[in-house]
Amino acid sequence: MREENLLLAYLPNEERERLTPYLHEEVLEFQQVLIEPNQPITDLYFPYDAITSTIQEMNDGDSVETGLMGIEGFVGVQLWLHAPTTSTRTLVQVPGRAHHMRATDFIRYVRDAESPLNVLCAKYAHAFLSMTSITAACNRLHPVNERLCRWLKLVHNRVRRDDFPLRQEFVAHMLGVHRPTVSTAANMLQQAGLIRYSRGQLRVVDAEGLRNGSCECLELMEREFEKIFS
Question: What's the pTM value of the predicted model, to 2 decimals?
Answer without folding.
Answer: 0.91
